[in-house]
Design goal:
alpha+beta, 12 helices, 58% helix, globular, binds zinc ion
Length: 376
């Protein structure tokens, strides 16, 4: 859904990642905290103000992380393995490897997030209250502000639009009532898009009233929610369709194999230009020894193509993401999303028997829709 993410660490076996977009937001949040501190506590030195702003930003993002960890830990406790937590923009996302098994689990996993933010708000409030006479005034004030921010976080997340927590709660309720996760997801996602558009409309109203910053914020958050609701629905739909499907059903099979001593020029002319594949296995005496990718070939200057051989520019098999033919596609999907190559090799007895790329997946889905015949 987003750009690349940096891995920053692990908590309780769960990978913590930070999205690219987050760096910009971290700066913005720190800067707005700095302006706030400067405005309220004019007597503070610049160093003091910057320090307090950074502390506030760290506590803010720490609060977001604790919120996500609460989702992840409850999820793990219900036997649903968590892939990772990614922090981006104003919040985070916890990705589970599989769907909740029932509306009860879904409810528990969703509700614990806003609940945790509520508890954090209480804790910050108590510390700020107790520290009023002991702590320096700017510090106590900032802690009190974080109590409000966490309360706001809990409130915003309770908005009933998927993929927000409130949307998940809505989904679990509809799921429980109708027994259909598909219908529940569709309605919750539509609610998410509706809320998103409402926020956009609110933003435009703000803009027209002359509040530039507020308007842009609202419109931006709304637009983001619309996109997120749409994307999460599509991903869920995809996972649903892929249930029970195996890697060999989706992979591009009957692969043509490139001999290792071919020149790059011949490989381009006879393979890449002739067939619609971005990569070919390289075989020597019936054994796959590597993979030649178009991207790899393009890195070699064109005038050297007729002198250089495939063998020297192929990618070793060991560097590839590999699955067995009977691997389940919902798992393969995760690997396809994780891997940087955007490709998964299907290997049987040491030989590459198929390749799965997002294009193969799209083709398979198109076939599936045609065969299935129902309008979706
Ligand atoms: Zn949440």
């Amino acid at each position: 859904m987003f750009g690349t993410a940096w891995r920053v660490g692990r908590i309780a076996g769960i990978e913590i990642r930070i999205d690219n977009s987050w760096a910009v937001i971290a700066l913005l949040v720190t800067y707005s905290m700095y302006l706030r501190v400067l405005f309220l506590y004019g007597s503070l030195s610049t160093v003091g103000a910057v320090g307090l702003a950074i502390l506030a930003a760290v506590l803010f993002f720490g609060s977001v992380l604790v919120h996500e960890l609460a989702h992840a830990l409850v999820s793990q406790a219900r036997g649903i393995r968590v892939q990772d937590i990614t922090l981006f923009l104003f919040g985070g996302a916890t990705r589970a490897r599989v769907e909740s098994s029932g509306p009860g689990d879904e409810f528990l996993i969703a509700v614990v997030g806003p609940l945790t933010s509520g508890i954090l708000a209480g804790l910050f409030g108590i510390v700020a209250g107790l520290g009023r006479d002991v702590l320096p005034r700017p510090l106590a004030g900032t802690l009190g502000y974080l109590a409000w921010v966490n309360l706001l976080l809990a409130g915003f997340n309770l908005v009933p639009g998927f993929p927000l927590d409130g949307g998940r709660l809505l989904r679990s309720a509809i799921w429980k009532a109708t027994g259909s996760i598909g219908r529940a997801t569709r309605i919750a996602s539509l609610a998410g898009q509706a809320v998103g558009w409402l926020l956009v409309a609110g933003g435009v109203a703000y803009l027209l009233a002359g509040n530039l910053a507020g308007g842009i914020w609202f419109a931006f958050i709304g637009w983001f929610l619309v996109q997120a609701a749409r994307a999460s629905y599509q991903e869920l739909q995809l996972r649903h369709m892929l249930r029970g499907v195996e890697a060999e059903d989706v992979m591009a099979g009957n692969l043509l194999r490139i001999p290792p001593d071919l020149t790059l020029q011949d490989a381009v002319d006879d393979y890449f230009m002739r067939y619609d594949h971005g990569a070919f296995p390289v075989d020597e005496q019936g054994r796959t020894i590597g993979l030649l990718t178009l991207r790899g070939v393009r890195r070699v200057p064109r005038e050297q193509w007729s002198a250089r051989r495939v063998r020297d520019f192929m990618v070793p098999l060991g560097d590839q993401v590999v699955v067995a033919p009977d691997a389940r596609m919902d798992g393969v999907l995760g690997k396809l999303e994780d891997g940087e190559a955007g490709r998964v090799l299907v290997v049987q007895d040491g030989e590459v028997v198929g390749i799965i790329t997002p294009t193969d997946l799209t083709r398979w889905l198109r076939r599936w829709r045609t065969v299935d015949g129902r309008a979706r």
